[in-house]
Write a structure and sequence with these properties.
single chain, 229 residues, alpha+beta, Jelly Rolls, Arc Repressor Mutant, subunit A, 2 domains, 5-stranded antiparallel sheet, 4-stranded antiparallel sheet, 8 helices, 12 strands, globular, disordered N terminus
């Protein structure tokens, strides 16, 4: 089920949550004049794999996962999109994955043809969008290294550090995703993820406030573990 379109342009709340913090962000904020705010409930589908890639999206609040079903029926989660992240910039004619809402989420939806026309008129804007797409590609390559060379604990450590960096908090990580989501992202089982968290807790590296809130107690030890491979 697709989310409901609320208004023709981003609300004041959406604008406030996406205030530019750099020259690049300032130029990207121009896109909001061409966007439509879309509200989605937990477990709704933003788009399906192989749907025509007619829109780009930016997460304003909430969280979205990208996933594909493998030939053997297993699910692989390629990425988690958090506030400020763009979705679909690297798409070809069709989306390469399904985008599913993890918590109540607000996105800005942009018609692809309008944004591409705008980018052709404003080369700096086009350059910023290309940079974002290239960064996603680099992240995907890093994920391949993580899955191919690291142990379960090393994968979990890398995952927590990446989230902490993305949300801009050095000692606290909010997890909008479930343990199953994390497992399907890291190529592990849910039981292995749970044991990994418990091990990091017993070593005093992290503290578990609840299933969705983690405090990093020993960042140096977590970084050493993440870089062990």
């Amino acid at each position: 089920m697709y989310g409901t379109l609320r208004v023709a342009t981003p609300t004041s709340q959406a604008r406030a949550q996406a205030l530019p913090t750099s020259p690049a962000a300032d130029e990207l904020a121009v896109l909001d004049r061409f966007g439509t705010v879309q509200s989605l409930r937990r477990d709704e589908i933003l788009f399906h794999e192989c749907d025509p890639a007619e829109c780009y999206f930016k997460v304003v609040s909430g969280a979205i996962r990208s996933s594909r079903l493998l030939a053997d029926g297993r699910r692989h989660i390629s990425d988690f999109f958090l506030p400020g992240d763009f979705i679909g910039l690297d798409a070809g004619t069709n989306y390469r994955f399904s985008a599913e809402v993890m918590t109540d989420t607000t996105v800005v939806r942009y018609a692809r043809r309008k944004i591409e026309a705008l980018a052709s008129q404003q080369p700096r804007l086009g350059s910023h969008l290309l940079t974002i797409a290239c960064h996603k590609l680099a992240t995907a390559q890093q994920q391949l290294l993580l899955l191919g060379r690291k142990t379960a604990d090393e994968r979990i450590a890398s995952f927590l550090l990446d989230l902490a960096e993305r949300i801009g908090k050095a000692d606290r990580v909010s997890l909008p995703m479930s343990r199953t989501d994390i497992a399907d992202h890291l190529g592990l089982t849910m039981e292995t993820v749970s044991r990994g968290f418990s091990h990091l807790k017993s070593e005093g590296i992290i503290a578990l406030e609840n299933s969705h809130q983690i405090v990093i107690r020993d960042r140096e030890a977590l970084e050493d573990l993440a870089e062990a491979a």
